[in-house]
Amino acid sequence: MKRLTTLASIVGLGTALALFLSSGVSDVTAAVVSVGWGTLAVVLARFLAVGWAGLGWHAVFPRGAGPTLRDCISLRFVREGINTLLPVAQVGGDLIGARLLTRRGTPGGMAGASMFVDLMTQAVTQLVFTIAGLLLLMQITGDGPLVRTVAGGVLLAIPALAAFYVIQRRSGHRVIEAALSRFAAGREWRALGAIDVLYENLRRLYGNRSRVGAALLIHLAGWVAGTVEVWIALNAMGYSVSFVDALVIESLAQAVRGAAFVVPGAIGAQEGGLIALGALFGIPAEAALALSLVKRVADLAVGLPSLALWNLMERKAAASPKPDGAEAVREGLGAIRARLGRRLGPAPLAPAYGFPTPRNPAALSSDNEAGALQKCA
């Protein structure tokens, strides 16, 4: 995966450089300068959008049983910075965000489950946003090669999204659990238990439909609000586009970024997509590239402080006491016992984790007790 990401980065950088050179570096620079204070407005809109996405993450937790809104927002910025600026295929930041959430007191199973549900709600609402943009594009330009290409991408995305949902449900649980049961040794029971905990929390979160529905509405509103970036930047450059036109450009540009998830920052893909979309509305290539640069300024303005925040969180976590691993073992084994439908005593720690196997102490008789006292004396 690392090699693929490196190769994709090289191809993306080459594509972006070729587009800038072919469009004229001086023309692109002049278009960027013409945005002026609009760049600051775009950066501010991006900060608000990321914070709003943190609210969507917070919405999936049961009331009173999850982290604070402040934690969700701050960690959502960390996720954004990592996914945008680091070569992690746009998903590594989500895993790190879930791990950091456990440092804030959220159980590991709940933190991991909330990450999956948050990704699912974001993906579903982005698909709805893309379909809305596609339908508007069809009304504006009619059928064409770009419309057919986007429609084909949507048709591919729907079964992929459905598979992502199914793997989080009971059938996916059985598949993963069966694989681990077949190949896992005794020392890997902890991992099996962790999966039980994860799926139990997924069932709990998806079962609260009102919270999931609220998260869907929040994320959908966030995607629509992101249109402000395109509308501000293009109008500041002197291109009078309506909010509907900006919505079409933003929705399909975000779809291009999602499709190019392997490329860090979707470099090259974002530039090419904006050029193709801008041409439909009479926007020249240099202006489309200037729009891409303004968006990347927002990426840096949000991402760099977010990476600094991540570094600070990691340093604090390293300085804090390590959590007790035995508690995670007991949690996982407890989930296994619950699924087997048996009520067992406290789970002993397996010898593989460095703990001796506890013996069942026999009841001491009075003679044994006296003998023990004599030995102690």
Task: Record keyword descriptors for this entry.
single chain; 377 residues; mainly alpha; 0% strand; disordered C terminus
Integer tally of domains: 1
- SS class: mainly alpha
Largest sheet: none
Low-confidence stretches: 324-330, 342-377
The Cα radius of gyration reads 26 Å
Oligomer: single chain
SS elements, strand count: 0
First CA to last CA: what distance? 66 Å
Helix segment count?
16
Shape: globular
What share of the residues lie within helices? over 70%
What do the pLDDT scores average to?
81
Strand and helix order: HHHHHHHHHHHHHHHH
Percentage of residues in strands = under 5%
Description:
The chain has 377 residues and is mainly α. The chain has helices at 2-23, 25-35, 38-59, 69-85, 92-102, 108-141, 145-166, 170-183, 189-207, 209-225, 227-236, 243-259, 269-280, 285-319, 325-340, 366-376. The longest helix has 35 residues, at 285-319. Helix 3 (38-59) packs antiparallel against helix 10 (209-225), helix 4 runs antiparallel to helix 5 (92-102) and helix 5 (92-102) packs antiparallel against helix 6 (108-141). Mean pLDDT is 81; it is low at 324-330 and 342-377. It contains 16 helices and no strands. The N and C termini lie far apart (66 Å). The chain has one domain. Helix content is 77%, strand content 0%.
